[in-house]
């Protein structure tokens, strides 16, 4: 069976071009980039090119790029570095829909180190309460950190505006751009961010490689203390093949941005609109405009997400759900709850996240498969009768 | 992905006895839209209290559907006395086991069955005895004590997996911990 992969916010396929670029560095080109011999330096030179490519992708200087082991490490390193730089400031500002990579870190800091964290709430469309955000900024704030794009709904936060306000108040600003990268132009200078996290596996590079951008001038403290790698900012011999792959992936992502915002957006809109038209009692979660071009989260009333996913799985369709049952917890995702999505559709919310590898034919196959799946589940739901929720 | 047995998959994809049951004379309902799963069990019982037929409507994950389907298969042909002895473990065993995190799906089956039997016999299930612990999922301390004893549960996580208690807002987790401790203390 052909797989239809529409779970690209979870992870992406390593692009063929990326794999090809990496392969020699798993094989004959195994040198250590720090070595004092030409053999190692060959890898060192390639690493330098990769760093340049990543820097170009976000309009940074190569010196401002730190390679990490994943998006989670980048997020952790950013926050820890901020609180180390301002040990007397015990307040953090963030949103209530952040990824666990950063959200659970705040919970940890609250519990173990006495930090006060302001979780700025979002409205029903997933948009930040900016008035509350700005009024919570104070002299005691060590860092403000907001995700650029939400992984579940694709909703975008106004990063440039928040960064500007933070700068005016002298507050450090970090953004988790793991989901935004490759889908929107990312320009650290134009947006005025101090730190920014990326993850390779969301942009067709392998898993286990991340980036933290740190603006020149900030007194960054290492998260992984060790050797001189990354200019002493992150110890550990470089994951050469993955870094090289990520460099290539950034180059490709830049090239693909227009496709993302035309063809992929059209596919997403087509899928969304067809589902809304063909399936009664369903609704899109999150703002329709301020949203990633590849993502749609759609809630089907009176049915449960895991059941939908497992039935789609039988048709080779990969998607994900905001439902609890897939994760082992019982409440729907904290993102949908923060948006006050009603329970009747939150439990039955499915996220489709596309890439440029998807086709119109695949969207048609999803639509064809999903209509009877929802019908079948509604036929056995005690909350569905005579074509509506009861 | 959950490690579901073939029986769970089979009962999920081809559920037995789905839909409202014509001529049903006993109904048991449990769960809600809010908590993510719900089961409405229909029984047709003759005057000798034998279950002639059973059916269900379920909202929930694959294991909730499979548990409901299994339950109806298990109890068909039983007398109400026999059926009242069916436990969540019987449902889980019938399906070759459920992942630990999904045990509450089988508990839901047992609970709906209890309610249907009471409904047939005209017994009012009154306000649950005991003190309310988990408001999200309507679970009392006595229910937790029963579950802890019957299944040798050791942690709040275990309790959540069986009864859902504590799996919502989490405010009652400390209270659940105390209940577990009190059972342990009493031995
Ligand atoms: C918004 C966001 N931040 C951080 C991460 C974590 O990235 P990684 O899986 O590379 O640790 C993810 C991906 O799961 C994400 O979607």
Q: How is the largest sheet of chain A built, in terms of strand order?
A: 2-8-7-6-5-3-4
What coarse outline of chain A follows from CA principal-axis ratios?
globular
Structural class of chain A: alpha/beta
Alpha-beta classification of chain B: alpha+beta
Rg of chain B computed from alpha carbons, rounded to a whole number of angstroms: 16 Å
Helix share, percent of chain A:
40-55%
**Major sheet of chain A:** 7 strands, mixed
* CATH superfamily label of the largest domain in chain A: Type I PLP-dependent aspartate aminotransferase-like (Major domain)
* Percent strand of chain B: 15-25%
How widely separated are the two ends of chain B? 37 Å
Helix/strand order of chain A: EHHEHEHEHEHEHEEHHEEHEEHHEHEE
Secondary structure tally, helices of chain B: 8
**Main pleated-sheet profile of chain B:** 3 strands, antiparallel
- Low-confidence residue ranges of chain A: none
Which consecutive residue ranges of chain B, at least 5 long each, have pLDDT under 50? none
């Amino acid at each position: 069976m052909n797989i239809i992969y529409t779970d690209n916010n979870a992870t992406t396929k390593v692009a063929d071009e990326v794999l090809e670029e990496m392969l020699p560095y798993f094989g004959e080109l195994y040198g250590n980039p720090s070595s004092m011999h030409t053999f190692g330096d060959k890898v060192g030179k390639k690493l330098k090119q990769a760093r340049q490519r990543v820097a170009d992708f976000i309009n940074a200087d190569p010196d401002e790029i730190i390679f990490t082991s994943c998006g989670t490490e980048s997020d952790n390193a950013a926050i820890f570095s901020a609180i180390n730089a301002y040990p007397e400031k015990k307040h953090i500002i963030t949103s209530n829909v952040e990824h666990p990579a950063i959200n659970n870190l705040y919970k940890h800091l609250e519990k173990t180190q006495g930090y006060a964290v302001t979780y700025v709430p979002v409205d029903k469309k997933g948009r930040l309460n900016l008035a509350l955000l700005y009024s919570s900024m104070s002299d005691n704030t060590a860092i403000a950190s907001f995700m650029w794009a939400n992984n579940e709904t694709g909703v975008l936060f106004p990063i440039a505006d928040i960064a500007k306000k933070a700068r005016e108040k002298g507050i450090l600003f970090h953004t988790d751009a793991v989901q935004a990268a490759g889908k929107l132009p990312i320009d650290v200078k134009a947006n005025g961010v101090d730190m920014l996290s990326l993850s390779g596996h969301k942009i067709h590079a392998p898993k286990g490689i991340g980036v933290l951008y740190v603006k020149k001038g900030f007194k960054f403290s290492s998260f992984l203390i060790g050797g001189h790698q990354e200019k002493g900012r992150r110890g550990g011999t470089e994951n050469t093949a993955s870094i090289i792959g990520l460099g290539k992936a950034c180059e490709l992502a830049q090239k693909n941005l227009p496709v993302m915002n035309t063809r992929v957006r059209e596919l997403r809109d087509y899928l969304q609109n067809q589902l809304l038209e063909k399936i009664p009692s369903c609704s899109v979660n999150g703002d329709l405009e301020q949203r990633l071009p590849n993502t749609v989260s759609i809630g089907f009333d009176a049915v449960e997400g895991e059941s939908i996913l497992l039935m789609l799985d039988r048709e080779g369709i990969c998607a994900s759900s905001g439902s609890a049952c897939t994760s082992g917890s019982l409440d729907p995702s904290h993102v949908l709850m923060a948006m006050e999505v009603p329970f009747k559709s939150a439990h039955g919310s499915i996220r489709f996240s596309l890439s440029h590898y998807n086709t119109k034919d695949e969207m048609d196959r999803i639509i064809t498969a999903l209509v009877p799946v929802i019908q079948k589940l509604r036929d056995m739901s005690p909350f569905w009768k005579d074509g509506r929720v009861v | 992905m959950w490690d579901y047995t073939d029986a769970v998959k089979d009962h999920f994809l081809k559920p037995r006895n789905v839909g409202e049951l014509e001529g049903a004379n006993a109904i048991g309902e449990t769960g809600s839209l809010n908590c993510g799963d719900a089961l409405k069990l229909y029984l047709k019982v003759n005057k000798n209290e034998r279950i002639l037929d059973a059916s269900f409507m379920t909202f929930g994950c694959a294991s909730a559907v499979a548990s409901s389907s299994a339950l109806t298969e298990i109890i068909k042909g039983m007398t109400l006395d026999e059926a009242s002895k069916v436990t969540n473990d019987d449902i889980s065993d019938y399906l070759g086991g459920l992942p630990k995190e999904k045990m509450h799906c089988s508990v839901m089956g047992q609970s709906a069955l209890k309610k249907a039997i009471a409904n047939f016999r005209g017994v009012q299930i009154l306000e649950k005895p005991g003190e309310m612990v988990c408001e999200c999922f309507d679970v009392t301390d006595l229910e937790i004590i029963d579950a802890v004893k019957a299944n040798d549960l050791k942690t709040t996580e275990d309790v959540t997996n069986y009864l859902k208690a504590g799996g919502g807002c989490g405010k009652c987790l400390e209270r659940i911990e105390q209940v577990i401790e009190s059972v342990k203390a009493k031995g």
